[in-house]
Design brief:
Layout (H helix, E strand, L loop, with lengths): L1 E2 L5 E4 H8 L3 H9 L7 E2 L5 E3 L3 H13 L4 H8 L5 H32 L3 H11 L3 H16 L8 H7 L10 H14 L2 H17 L10 H15 L9 H15 L5 H14 L2 H14 L8 H15 L2
Antiparallel strand pairs: 1-2, 2-4, 3-4
Helix pairs in contact: 5-6, 5-9, 6-9, 7-10, 9-14, 11-12, 11-15, 13-15
Length: about 325
């Protein structure tokens, strides 16, 4: 360490390396690219650096650790561009990289869980990389197939919204995984047909005068919940009051008498609704949209279907 002609402290490259923890080779590399040039040279021709060189190198090291390229770093340290502009640009670039990595992780995770081959992985990758417009088109195609001919039904807009996934611009890994699985499910012709039957039965139950009312599945879910929690046997006599209450409410809501036809009608609706893929779709939808889960109806539908069948056979 010596004093320059103007009295400022000068450091050799070795001394600067000791102060910053960087190697001599690294400092020389930055100096050769004009990022941290020497202030002057000693009479013997050795590089010497001023007191601001250490702070400049600390900034360079920080920016490099954050992934900023050397060209941008030189423009920052030379005051050609403000640091905040470079930080904003690189933060956006990093956000893009993170989204790409999340997509890759989701595809690889899904492929690992399924144990499929190359074709399935390619399909998963394609679904994960769909743009926002392509995702909306895929969902619209699914919902159009399910709700075809029911656009004038009063409940249609609300049901459509309740079944529409909206993947965020910056999704979490689990949301991407859920989207990939939901998109694949939405393209399954058999699942589309099952949902189409369910929606039409729902519309038929609501084709009566009066205010909007719960459908058959909702009536069963609400009426059976205590019996499920209590562990009642659906075929046993202790389940009789539950069956009577549920059928009575369904008959009242549909303006129909409690007879064999009504019970068969209710059973048909429950058979259609008792599709585990429906619950899975709703669970995936909740993950994608950030909604609370736990809306599955399969246990309640299965319990009441068994209870109703047992009594229709007697």
């Amino acid at each position: 360490m010596v004093k320059g002609m103007n009295g400022e402290t000068r450091y050799t490259i070795g001394e600067l390396a000791q102060r910053t923890g960087l190697s001599v080779k690294t400092i020389r590399y930055y100096a050769d690219r004009g990022i941290v040039p020497p202030t002057d040279r000693s009479p013997a021709g050795y590089r010497r650096y001023g007191p601001d060189a250490a702070a400049r190198l600390e900034l360079v090291r920080t920016l490099r650790d954050l992934g900023v390229d050397l060209a941008a770093i030189r423009r920052v340290v030379d005051h050609e561009v403000p640091l905040h502009e470079v930080a904003a640009a690189h933060a956006e670039a990093l956000a893009v990289q993170i989204r790409v990595l999340r997509l890759r992780q989701a595809v690889l995770t899904a492929a690992a869980k399924r144990g499929g081959g190359a074709e399935e992985m390619e399909l998963l990758h394609t679904l994960a990389r769909l743009s926002g417009q392509e995702r909306r088109r895929l969902v619209a195609d699914f919902l159009d197939a399910v709700f075809d001919g029911l656009a004038t039904t009063p409940a249609y807009p609300g049901i459509m919204r309740s079944l529409t996934p909206e993947l965020p611009d910056d999704p979490r890994t689990e949301q991407v995984e859920a989207w990939v699985e939901l998109a694949e499910l939405a393209q399954d012709p058999d699942f589309r047909a099952s949902m189409r039957r369910l929606v039409r039965q729902y519309a038929a139950d609501h084709d009566v005068p009066g205010l909007p009312r719960p459908d058959a599945v909702a009536v069963v879910r609400d009426g059976v919940a205590p019996a499920l929690a209590a562990g009642l046997d659906p075929t046993g006599p202790e389940a009789d009051p539950v069956v009577v209450a549920v059928i009575g409410r369904y008959a009242h809501l549909t303006n129909r008498p409690d007879d064999a036809d009504l019970r068969q009608r209710l059973l048909d609706r429950l058979d259609t609704a008792n599709d585990p893929r429906r619950d899975r779709y709703l669970d995936l939808l909740a993950v994608i949209n950030g909604w609370s889960t736990g809306g599955g109806v399969a246990p309640a539908v299965d319990w009441f279907s068994r209870a109703l069948r047992a009594r229709m056979l007697t």
